Every structure is written in structure tokens, then in C-alpha cells.
Amino acid sequence: MPPAHSRPSRPKALHIATAAVLITAVTASVASARPHRTTQPLPSAAGSPSATADPGASSGASAGLNDPRMKDIAQQLVSSAENSSLKWQAQFAYIEDIKDGRGYTGGIIGFCSGTGDMLDLVKHYEQLKPGNPLSRYLPALQKVNGSASHAGLDPDFVSDWKKAAEDPAFQQAQTDERDRVYFNPAVMQAQTDGLHALGQFAYYDAIVMHGPGDEPVSFGGIRAAAMKKARTPAQGGDEKTYLAAFLDARRAAMKTEAAHEETDRVDTEQEVFLRAGNLDLHTPLVWKVYGESFHIDN
């Protein structure tokens, strides 16, 4: 089990609805970009966003995290903060109640039973594999959405989740939903703003922790605060200056919540890369999170 501090809570309420709003805004601002799939029926494993999506590919921005190797690096960076480990694939089976008021938190991106994204994950799993080990929990997940309740989930939900995590279809469902709700919107917006790999990762990490949306402590609110201080590269601004403003805004948002008092993932990770001018996240990468040291050599 990861240390308690490695799973900071985040305000993910209204995840799916606000994700749709965010993607709609991004798509409207980049008419030439490939339409996003969020408003379409959830994909099958063969046509999942993780396998086919190329957000912002026609925008002219750096491919960055669209490269499979870079996407894997981004997931390792997120996992270092979320799980105190670079082995993000080992987190499919992760699940616990971290007592943040959002019920159970589980999987590679911290899907929560109280915020809707875990419900949508299990719905997608049901599409990929009807009658799976989690199918019977769909009514309960619907009822506990918006609360910290375990009603209808205990006592077997945790063990059944871990059993499901051995199923490639459930692993596919998790990566699909990670991409649909978090990765693709973040990377598309970052490319629209003219950001390279570091900026794309900064957006992705922010949306993972804070959730999509326009509230002050959500991803959209953080980006809006940054844009009041600096122009994006797409607006003719300096990329380093804008990213510094974004990280400042992110830090300020984190400090408004007790669960985010430790800002290491900004201070001793992303800012380290920014100060080094490593906008493309070239390896080797060396950083610290919550006192632990990590490195990616290649």
C-alpha cells in the first residue's frame, strides 16, 4: 500500500460533464484538429483512444506526449507522486478509501466511487466484457456517486476489484477512461496552447489531481489564472514564462486545500525540469516527490 501522503485528494466532482465542456471548448478553438471522441459512444478495446487518438496532431504543436515512449514517461512521472512508484502498470489493482470524502480511490489514475469516474469506468468495463466481476456493483456505484458511502460495495468490492485487475479487459477499460477524461483533453489543450512535452505533462498532471472544469481549483481555473499573468506560446508568449505562471497558479490552487499542502510534484519535479530548460523532457530525468528520489534513464 502506498504511503498516505502519496495519494493526495483532488476535487474531481463533475468530472465527466466538465470534461465534455473542456473538450468542446478546445475543439472549437482548433477547428482543424481531429474531433475528440468524448461525445461519442465509449470505444471498444480495438478502437480505444489509447490506441488510436492523436490529440492535436494537426495543430502544428510538438507531438510530445503523443509519442508512446513519452506517454509512458508521463505516466511514470504521475505514478511517482500518486503511488510512490514508477511502475504505473502495477496500479491497476490499487484500491483504498483514503478518507478524502470521495469513497474508494482505485486504479492507474485514481478513479473515485464518489465522483463519477469510477462508475463510468465500470460501465465501460461492462461494455468490453459483460458479466465481469464488477458488473454487480453498477447499481451501488450509481447510488454512492457524489458521496463517500460504501453502501452496496462492502464487503467484497475491494477483493473483486483486485480480481478484475488481472483481466486485460479491465486494464483496457482503465487506460481508455484515463485517455478519454484526462490524458487526451490535457494534451490537446497543451498543444493548442503551443506547449512542448513538459507543458503537456504539466497540464496532464494538473487535470489528474484537480479534475477538469472551470472552477478556481480545477484545471481550467488554474489555466485561466496563469493566462492572466502570461501569454501562451500560441498567443506569442514565451513558453518558459508561461509555464512558470502555470506552475505558480497550480501551486496556489493546491495550497487552498489541506490535502494539497505538499506541493512537491510542482516544486521538486516540474519546476526542476523547467529550470533546466528541459521543455522536451529529454532523459535522463531526475526528481524528488515527498522526499523520495526517482530517475528515468532512457
What are the main properties of this structure?
298 residues, mainly alpha, 3-stranded antiparallel sheet, two-stranded antiparallel ribbon, 11 helices, 5 strands, 6% strand, disordered N terminus
Report what the structure shows.
With 298 residues, this protein is mainly alpha-helical. It contains eleven helices and five strands; from the N terminus they run αααβββααααααααββ. It has a three-stranded antiparallel β-sheet, covered by helices on one side. It has a two-stranded antiparallel ribbon with strand order 4-5. α7 crosses α8. The radius of gyration is 18 Å and the shape is globular. It starts with 14 loop residues before the first helix and ends with a strand. 51% of the residues are buried. The N terminus is likely disordered.
Number of strands: 5
What proportion of the residues is helical, as a percent range?
40-55%
Beta content comes to: 5-15%
* Distance between the amino and carboxyl termini: 27 Å
Low-confidence stretches: 1-60
The 3D shape can be described as globular
- Largest beta-sheet characterization: 3 strands, antiparallel
Mean pLDDT: 83
The value of Rg in angstroms is: 18 Å
Total helices: the number is: 11
Structural class: mainly alpha
Strand order of the largest sheet: 1-2-3
Task: Please provide the ordered H/E string of secondary-structure elements.
Answer: HHHEEEHHHHHHHHEE
